[in-house]
Design goal:
With about 525 residues, the protein is mainly α. It has a single domain, classed as Up-down Bundle (Sodium/glucose cotransporter), CATH 1.20.1730.10. It contains 21 helices and 4 strands.
Length: about 525
Amino acid sequence: MTSTNIIILCAFAFYMCVMIAIGAFYSKSTKNNEDYFLGGRGLGAWTAAISAEASDMSGWLLMGLPGAFYLTGSGDIWIAIGLLIGTILNWIFVSKRLRRYTIKAENSLTIPSFFDNRFKSNGVLKVVSAIIIAIFFSVYTASAFSSGAKLFATLFGDGKNFENVYLIGLIIAAVVILVYTLLGGFKAVCTTDLIQGMLMLVAIMSVPIIAYAILSGNGGFGANLAKNGITDVASFVNPMTVGDQPISWTGIVSGLAWGLGYFGMPHILVRFMAVKSEKEIKKSGTIAIIWVTLAFIASFFIGILGRAFLTSELDSTTSETVLIRMIQQIFTDNFVLIFIGGIFLCGILAAIMSTADSQLLVTASAISEDMYKGVINKKAEEKKSLLVGRIAVLIIAVIAFVIALDPKSSIMGLVSDAWAGFGAAFGPVVLLALFWKRSNAAGALAGMISGALTVIVWDYIPMIGTADGLATIGGSTGLYSLAVGFPVALVVMIIVSLITKKPSDEIVKEFESVA
């Protein structure tokens, strides 16, 4: 192992120890389910804002999205635009009312329990929601584990032992995330997310600025793009082209549709529920929107500038490591620079960890609070329920670990599947639960199931004949499944709510008191 790798490993080890220490510190104040899963609804504005966005912006922000920009140019910017719009709308319209409603609806601690208490479904919506969460978060968490493994394999592996180092990195990432999530629960996760979110932003903003300065003194951006195989610079930076081809309407719609996913992301919505007061939410929203805007701009420039900056060209398999390789190329020569580069690489590790811990915690709450204590054993003691939650964290982590074992798996692809599943299954239900008093339990159940099934059928079941055999509808049309699943679930929920029994006076009265 080289001296450079040893220095980077020291930076990683220090960072991971700090995260575990935070988990150990908060374990002392975790006494019941509300502490473990919602932090006692005591998050301040900064912690809530940065934690929400850091838990959202996983390895795909620092690896998957820049990799897409690196390969095809500015055409994928529509994903970032859609996500930014979704973030803004979520904080403006959903955050405050969701917090208020979850308190009114029997102090709901989780999204599944909110659905159940809001519609008085006698546990049905709890169970279905928990199953959906377990399925899609297994895939989502796998994307974070894969990101961590690729980070380690890129830094410490080579062509001969890449897969072996990938496996070691996968084990390390999974174990560290598990330890501090199991120890401290929600408070530990949110505190580490605050630290990780700030570190992510520093890393992702600094690297493209430094890279551009170096390019400016070395022939300029355009000249270096041409050296690295981009003959048509104008097309590469044009958001209306993908590669050298005009972007299709399905590409634009699919990119913008990513924004719909925000309304159904349990690990983001739970931050709204945990904010200390409604007064803090407006401040949190402003902080979060600024953070996300800066992060997306930086992610875009990492991919675009990376194509000109890196001396070796990356392919579709390695393009998601563009930021890692830029840091390696910039921070060299002496101990201080290498250590700073190691801290910046910790920013990538931070992005990975801040999402995986949140997803594991939400999954644990769904299984422990909603399935076990909510349906299976309603008289369960707090200690036993917490134990079930921690066991659930372990099980989901193992499933995600197995999914992530393939070193060729695409981070962006895994995130895309999980994002569509949650957005279609939960997004319409959340919006109509908050803003339409005629919605009912039957409609919510139908919307949830139809949204999830649409995504599964669209993305996973081959049924369209092509020259190469059967293909999925998504693969054949190029249209993102969330762009179809969300409206399908919305329409189904409205129709079923209208043709079934009206909500009781109790439900309507509760809705009006919140509104």
